[in-house]
Amino acid sequence: MGIFSKRQEVDHAAADRALQAEKRRGSEELNAIRDRIGDGSATDQDYKIFRKVTGIKRSEL
Q1: pTM of the model
Q2: Which one of 26, 38, 44, 55 is separated from 11 by 20 to 30 angstroms, measured CA to CA?
């Protein structure tokens, strides 16, 4: 941004690190859901999240 801009300067490196951390957390959570589905202890919410993320229909599970 220019000298007279009112917007705060963006720290792109910090934003990228935060994005990568959230991606890591999301993939860890999805793997945990996948494990619960595999061993039969998954809840309805787990199935809902899994279907939403993977795009798999209910009939395909």
Answers
A1: 0.70
A2: 26
